[in-house]
Amino acid sequence: MAVGVRLLVVIILLSLPQWCWGGPCPRDCTCFLDSRGRRQVTCARGGMTNPIPIHSMDQQVEVIQITAPPDSPNALTIGPIFQQFSRLEELHIVRSNIPSIGRYSFWGVPTLQKLNLTQNNISHVLDYNFRGLANLLELHLDDNRIESMPSGTFRHLHELRVLSLARNRITELVPRLFLMLGKLHQLDLSDNQLMELNPEVFKDVQVGDNGALEMKLYPQITPHSVRYIRRDAIRAQPPFAFSFTRVRSEV
User: In order of start, what are the domains of the chain with their CATH numbers?
Assistant: First the structure.
């Protein structure tokens, strides 16, 4: 009888969410304090399907990381489901086959500073995808299927410092694409299909505190293939980046 009771207790305990700092933790995830003392939830087992287990997470969580091993990717969608996290600073949803960001997915999450949606299947980004992210500092969209972006796509991200779009399928940057990104310091466009740059694209980007915008363009753009920007406006930053101190048409 005693053995049966103990076995029942073990089964019940295993079925409950994990606890670490006094809050709930989703099954198959780990919850801990990161190196900065922030509450973090990490779900890295893979094979996760909808819905994302937000209701099993502590509402005071500050970092959410959802990823998967290469041989067991997740299959997720996202929408306006993160408003309950009043202290959320970082959201990473990687290798999860997300097809689109959705309308107003991050509305009501003004504390978010870093959004990482790399290695998904996102093909289009529009300005309403980023409404509500007034304090976002970093946006990472590498390794998706983005082909084009309309003017003003990032116009709601007034505080953005880092924008990474590497390894997509971008062939052209339209004028005013970076509207309202006056504080942008780093822009990564590496391994896309760009062949030339139009200075009109960058007219809304002011130089940062260090006096330059660091732009990574390798391998499709080299200093000799920047056809519409003054050569003296480019400073090589080895191995494969350029810093723009001013951008204007060649005379």
Answer: 19-145 (3.80.10.10), 176-251 (no CATH)
Phi, psi for 247 (deg, rounded to 5): -130, 125
Give the model's pLDDT for residue 4. Answer: 55
Our measurement of the distance from residue 28's CA atom to the centroid of its chain's CA atoms, rounded to an integer in Å, reads: 23
Name residue, tokens 């002011």: 206
Q: pLDDT digits over 62-87, tens only? A: 999 999 999 999 999 999 999 999 99
Q: How far apart are CA 236 and CA 134, in angstroms?
A: 32
Chain centroid to Cα 131, Å, comes to 14
CA atoms of 200 and 77, how far apart (whole Å): 35
Please tell me the least confidently modeled range out of 64-78, 131-145, 188-202: 188-202
Measured CA to CA, the distance from residue 205 to residue 246 in angstroms comes to 10
